[in-house]
């Protein structure tokens, strides 16, 4: 705890429901900060698809440099496919930030909040997915030749570096050490004989440094089944960029939906700011209706405070969220407004 300190946060609300949930998360983070005697100063950047329509860019040329000076970034959602193709908006804002700031660990917790009914029989699971966030299948390496012709070819090359694979695995083992001591490493080395055999080798290499952590390798397909059939057997799950992307939507589904799924894009070396965002997108179907569930964004803000060294305020937010869902707020899509759910969390924070 750092009483009296002010953290300088960049707010990038983005598109669709992004501004609504960012506002909610910010209000809750500020309330928690006040209770713990520190402050948050926010600078809002309007970068979004609307910004693109006005300027031709998702963020200004010096956008990355503007963000670099902040202690952390709180992001809402990026994308409005009706006006800007996703491949343009995401590659113009979200993905460059993850890469430029070397936010190589994408951390996504999956568990049921009290009162939330998931689709599974299992209720007591607590999974921490660690997704590699800067390389792998989403490296952006590749190209197209002979466009529009019969012989057209598209190549998308997955890039796995020793540094990249080793550091994400180490991160996962470190996380397991302070949890239940188990790592599930997600592979597909039965079919992908280069990258995933490499991933398995490095898993074994890193595991040797953590004799107290139990490690098991699972193929991605088997892991997808396990997350549905036996999620309680999992602790830390570590995966490449694509595999982790898919598994964390599955994780969101088993925790009751994307409205609950939080994430942190972390640069563990702290050489640049980390970014915190709900896993959900801009949800055009409910945008502007005030019905978005803010809990995923609020949970992400709690992860931000934890990353900044404010563990007590972070725990305070999680406890308040749990109090709100126990009272029936935010547990069923559309049952309450974004504001009502936010107020329920704020009430719980202030009554502790
Ligand atoms: C996520 C999102 C992004 C990703 C998309 C929008 C590029 O699905 O954060 O999981 O795949 O990283
Ligand atoms: Mn995704």
Automatic annotation (TrEMBL):
Enzyme Commission numbers on file: 1.1.1.83, 1.1.1.93, 4.1.1.73
Keywords: Manganese, Metal-binding, NAD, Oxidoreductase
Pathway(s) it belongs to: Carbohydrate acid metabolism; tartrate degradation; 2-hydroxy-3-oxosuccinate from L-tartrate: step 1/1; Carbohydrate acid metabolism; tartrate degradation; 2-hydroxy-3-oxosuccinate from meso-tartrate: step 1/1; Carbohydrate acid metabolism; tartrate degradation; D-glycerate from L-tartrate: step 1/1
Keyword check for NAD: yes
Alphabetized InterPro entries for the sequence: ICDH/IPMDH, IsoCit/isopropylmalate_DH_CS, IsoPropMal-DH-like_dom, TTC_DH
Reaction(s) catalysed by this chain's protein: (2R,3R)-tartrate + NAD(+) = 2-hydroxy-3-oxosuccinate + NADH + H(+); tartrate + NAD(+) = 2-hydroxy-3-oxosuccinate + NADH + H(+); (2R,3R)-tartrate + H(+) = (R)-glycerate + CO2; (R)-malate + NAD(+) = pyruvate + CO2 + NADH
Cofactor(s) annotated in UniProt: K(+); Mg(2+); Mn(2+)
Pfam families xref list: Iso_dh
Domain Isopropylmalate dehydrogenase-like per the UniProt entry, residue ranges: 8-345
NCBIfam families: TTC
Function according to Swiss-Prot or TrEMBL: Has multiple catalytic activities. Apart from catalyzing the oxidation of (+)-tartrate to oxaloglycolate, also converts meso-tartrate to D-glycerate and catalyzes the oxidative decarboxylation of D-malate to pyruvate.
UniProt name for this protein: D-malate dehydrogenase [decarboxylating]
Organism the protein comes from: Afifella marina DSM 2698
Taxonomic classification: Bacteria, Pseudomonadati, Pseudomonadota, Alphaproteobacteria, Hyphomicrobiales
């Amino acid at each position: 705890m750092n009483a009296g300190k002010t953290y300088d946060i960049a707010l990038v609300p983005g598109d669709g429901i992004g501004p609504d949930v960012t506002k909610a998360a910010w209000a809750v983070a500020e309330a928690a900060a006040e209770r713990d005697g520190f402050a948050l100063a926010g600078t809002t950047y309007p970068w979004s698809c609307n910004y693109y329509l006005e300027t031709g860019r998702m963020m200004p040329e010096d956008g990355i440099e503007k963000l670099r000076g902040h202690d952390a970034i709180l992001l809402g959602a990026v994308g409005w496919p009706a006006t800007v193709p996703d491949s343009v908006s995401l590659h113009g804002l979200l993905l460059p930030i993850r890469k430029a700031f070397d936010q190589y660990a994408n951390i996504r917790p999956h568990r049921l909040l009290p009162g939330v009914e998931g689709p599974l029989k299992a209720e007591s699971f607590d999974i921490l997915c660690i997704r590699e966030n800067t390389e792998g299948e989403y490296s952006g390496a590749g190209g197209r030749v002979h466009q529009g012709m019969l012989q057209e070819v598209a190549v998308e090359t997955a890039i796995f570096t020793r540094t990249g694979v080793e550091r994400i695995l180490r991160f996962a083992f470190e996380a397991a050490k302070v949890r239940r001591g188990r790592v599930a490493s997600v592979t597909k080395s039965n079919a992908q004989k280069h990258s995933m055999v490499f991933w398995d080798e490095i898993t074994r290499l890193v595991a040797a440094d953590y004799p107290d952590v139990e490690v098991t390798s699972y193929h991605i397909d088997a892991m997808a089944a396990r997350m549905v059939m036996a999620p309680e057997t999992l602790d830390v799950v570590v995966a490449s960029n694509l595999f982790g992307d898919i598994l964390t939507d599955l994780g969101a589904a088993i925790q009751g939906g994307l409205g609950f799924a939080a994430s942190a894009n972390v640069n563990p070396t702290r050489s640049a700011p980390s970014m915190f965002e709900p896993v959900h997108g801009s949800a055009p179907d409910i945008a502007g209706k005030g019905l978005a569930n803010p809990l995923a964004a609020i949970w992400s803000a709690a992860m931000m405070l934890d990353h900044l060294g404010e563990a007590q305020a972070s725990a305070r937010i999680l406890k308040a969220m749990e109090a709100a869902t126990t009272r029936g707020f935010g547990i069923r899509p559309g049952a309450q407004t974004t504001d009502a759910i936010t107020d329920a969390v704020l009430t719980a924070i202030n009554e502790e």
